[in-house]
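Interim report to the steering committee. The following record documents the input for Flavin-containing monooxygenase (285 residues).
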Amino acid sequence: MTKKRIAVIGGGVSGLSSIKCCLEEGLEPVCFERTADIGGLWRFQENAEEGRASIYKSVIINTSKEMMCFSDYPIPDHYPNFMHNAQVLEYFRMYAKEFDLLKYIRFKTTVCTVKKRPDFSTSGQWEVVTESEGKKETDVFDGVMVCTGHHTNAYLPLESFPGIEKFKGQYFHSRHYKNPEGFAGKRVIIIGIGNSGVDLAVEISHTAKQVFLSTRRGTWLLNRVGDNGYPFDGLLSNRLKHFMSKICGQSLANMYLERRMNQRFDHEMFGLKPKHRAKNIALTE
């Protein structure tokens, strides 16, 4: 019986794991990666590349290695609990090598279009047009897995800032931030209190004259390290905590978590207490 062919779009972490899953299920994966290397978001470049997510030089992942590793390929013991982006990328390279995934990837190949074939209702097949070195190619696949991530395009709503066209200073999205060197002696405002906003505020504060962090609402802040030096996500996401939250309900679980976070600093005193409860948060530094 002929193996079903699957197109995997993107050679980042999702693309690599999708290739491996296809192989385990007896499928024939063909991965298309528009750049010359794997890694996607986690491959740092000095300049933001069009069509690819971009990170700054100092990025450290906010998920512990114990919680983020592949179940069948643990991260080496000597790696830190929270890894620098270069170590994250190296781990993905080791994963690709261990399971011999690179031979299924067509590098420097852009997917132009994906559409259903005329007989899709009976065949379930897709027509995929790709381009490599100026040459287009059309191929047919039994399935398509889109692994392109969701941090590629910057959202910069300048219409929300009346007078921005008269502003004489520099402004840009965090996608284009790489290091704090250009902010020495300057007054800087960072808009947004998500992971990137908090990261940049801390980093830039070491060189800038003054840094403001602007947010339209409060947020619950979790530090990476919990009791006794254990990663907080590991302490928070264990069977006992899950069992207790089922027994006690969301209200008591929220009270417990909020009390723990307020022991670090009083969110209300600093004007950071949000209207939403703690169980709605995303991990941040």
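The chain has two domains: 5-146, 158-264. The committee is asked to note this result when reviewing the revised timeline.
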